[in-house]
Design goal:
The protein is of the alpha/beta class. It folds into 4 domains: about 120 residues, Response regulator (Rossmann fold), CATH 3.40.50; about 160 residues, Rossmann fold (3-Layer(aba) Sandwich); about 70 residues, Orthogonal Bundle (Helicase, Ruva Protein, domain 3); about 45 residues, Arc Repressor Mutant, subunit A (Orthogonal Bundle). About 45% of the residues lie in helices and about 15% in strands. It is built from 21 helices and 16 strands. The strands form 5 sheets. A 5-stranded parallel β-sheet has the order 2-1-3-6-7, sandwiched between helices. A 5-stranded parallel β-sheet has the order 9-10-13-8-14. Helix 19 crosses helix 20. It is globular and about 75 Å long.
Length: about 450
């Protein structure tokens, strides 16, 4: 029993600097852990052949090889061992490369003992978390289609790491749900999950909202206040619609992520923060980087692992199962028996393109419950809006200058969305997959404002 306990609490430390090895060894000892130290890749491989470890900490630069080689070797032969890399100060490219190679997390030199202890603690709670979680938590991400199975599989894989994850997909396709599942399956499950809609925060308030402020920092700051980073301490910070961040805030966010430290507005000192960043947008960040609208260095920092949430129209028969589950939930909330879909209604849903994805499906079914005349929901109750046909006299591509052609198509799409939502601009923006701020700008540019 004693031998098994010792084996379960050992950490492999790989670094060619004796003082770094000694510092980490002493810190781990104070946490009740034993360390085996190696000064090279070969020594580390030899130790791995005869001992089991709960964690490996390795430097990126070793006398006989690259730390990335060790990360990959452990991932192949000992996938149960989380690996964290130690990088030179400011070497974010190396840190990102290590995370993409399968590393669990990274530490920068000089090694912060506070961050080291936080990293080790997050590893130690992982087995208990996985045992407690079981396999039932993924039931909220429904669907048996290939795209949904692949998404669930990827969530399981990335949840164990500390690597930043970027989710992209159409509006209403479940990006926030995927982010919540990543958090719930991660070692950070017991700490907060803090969602932030980056497109809904006024630019002049962003810094204080993200990082907090000290009393007296500005007019109205009557007491100290924590920011999103502090609220998410130890947990996950979900940056939804991250593409809407203005350039000034992109710079500040990049520094906070790289340094793992933030400064409250009005404070002379920085404070350490331990959060995992998960971001999302319906826009194409790569295109925005090429257009100069989004910082390339921030993009690479956020986009270490990229996951795509599939559109509902790509998920085949999942639509029917989702509809039935949504009907059960809506009826339960209303305290009534769940109505059934007729065969015609099911076929109509399967044939619909759902530009608003699952969110639109929920709206359609909520309206159908209210409008139905009996215990069944038929095609007429769904009130599906047919895909707008191209007008006979609409000019074809090439008959107008490109910008005029695109403006006309954009104007028609906005008008269709406004008509479909009874001129509710918030709902129209959601249907079009853009933020309210973006819709307002587009309407003003196209002369559609009243």
């Amino acid at each position: 029993m004693a031998e098994r306990k010792a084996a379960a609490s050992r950490v492999l430390v790989v670094d060619d600097e004796a003082d770094i090895r000694e510092l980490i060894d002493m810190t781990l000892a104070r946490m009740g852990l034993a360390a085996d130290c190696a000064a090279s890749v070969d020594e580390a491989r030899a130790l791995l052949e005869h001992q089991r470890y709960v964690l490996c900490l390795t430097d990126m630069r070793l006398p006989d090889g690259d730390g990335l080689d060790l990360v990959k070797a452990i991932g192949a032969a000992h996938p149960e061992i989380p690996v964290a890399v130690i990088t030179a100060h400011g070497s974010m490219e190396n840190a990102v490369s290590a995370l993409k190679a399968g590393a669990f997390d990274y530490l920068s030199k000089p090694v912060s003992l506070e961050q080291l202890r936080a990293l080790v603690k997050s590893v130690l709670v992982m087995p208990a978390r996985e045992e407690a979680a079981g396999g039932g938590e993924m039931i909220t991400l429904l669907g048996d289609s290939t795209p949904m199975r692949e998404l669930r599989s990827m969530i399981e894989r990335v949840a164990r790491t500390q690597a930043p994850v970027h989710l992209y997909g159409e509006s209403g396709s479940g990006k926030e749900l995927a982010a919540r599942l990543i958090h719930r399956r991660s070692p950070r499950y017991a700490a907060p999950f803090v969602p932030v809609n980056c497109g809904a925060i006024p630019e002049n308030l962003m810094e204080s909202e993200f990082f907090g402020y000290r009393k007296g920092a500005f007019t109205g700051a009557e007491s100290d206040r924590e920011g999103f980073f502090q609220f998410a301490q130890g947990g996950t910070l979900f940056l939804d619609e991250v593409a809407d961040l203005p350039p000034s805030m992109q710079v500040k966010l990049l520094r906070a992520i790289q340094e793992k430290r933030v400064r409250k507005v009005g404070s002379p000192v920085e404070e350490a923060v331990d959060v995992r960043i998960v971001s999302a947008t319906h826009q194409n960040l790569r295109d925005m980087v090429e257009q100069g609208r989004f910082r390339q260095d921030l993009f690479f920092r956020l986009n270490v692992i990229e996951l795509r949430t599939p559109a509902l129209r790509e998920c085949g028969d999942d639509v029917r199962h989702l509809a039935e589950r949504i009907l059960d939930r809506l009826a339960g909330t209303a305290g009534i028996a769940a109505p059934k879909l007729t065969a015609g209604a099911r076929d109509a849903l399967l044939g619909y393109t759902f530009p608003g994805n699952v969110r639109e499906l929920e709206n359609i079914l909520e309206r159908a419950i209210a409008l139905r005349s009996g215990d069944l929901i038929d095609v007429a109750d769904l009130n599906l809006v047919p895909v707008a046909a191209v007008a006979v006299d609409a000019p074809a591509a090439g008959e107008l200058p490109l910008q005029d052609y695109l403006d006309r198509a954009e104007r028609q799409a906005i008008l269709d969305a406004l008509q479909k939502t009874r001129y509710n601009r918030t709902a129209a923006a959601r249907l079009l997959g853009v933020t309210f701020r973006s819709l307002r700008y587009r309407m003003e540019r196209l002369g559609l404002n009243e």
